[in-house]
Amino acid sequence: MITTELIFVRHGEAQCNVDGVVGGPRTFTGLTNLGYDQVERTAARLAAEHQQHRFTALYAGPRIRLRQTAEILSQSLKIPLRTEAGLDGPVHGAADGKPWTEVKDAADGGPHAHPDTPWAEGSDTWNGYLQRAGSLLQELIARHEGDRVLFAAHGETVIVAHTLLLQIPLGAPAGFTISHGSITRWQHHLNRLGQRRWVLDRHNDTAHLAALSAKATS
Q: What pTM, to 2 d.p., does this model score?
């Protein structure tokens, strides 16, 4: 039996992604036209699912690309949006708004490359972010036991979920691809023997975006 479900939707393509700059809270870049199309297709897919098996709650962090994504989901599914500051992604400090190539050159790699070292003045460390965000996710899981919870999320939030629920050691070099508008789903299973475990039902599902990909390559 499936008890709790966590469904993560990565935000649609944002202007900061196109520009290749660090999209922190001071940058305030929203979705591109493609990003809106991606999220609208994701919302249509989830709305059909919602008719059969309703989602209980919708969460997003405060950055504009998350809010715009969550507002589309909220309107389509007709469930209220809850803003949670702890879902706002890593703190980038002085890197906010700078080109990622410049930041990575200065830090000898991205946030994952030296996971216990800040990648810019005033930034998180990667492991510090994973710990902080993982603690918040644990709190939300406890708060919503037995619910189906939808997140408009950064790609980093999906990595946090995988790190927590797969019990990946901090600093592990492996990573995950998380595409804009993709769906990732975790399910908490309870079997007839009373045993519980988390199951990754799907990761980076973009089947609903196939038409957009075909259009872009035509």
A: 0.95
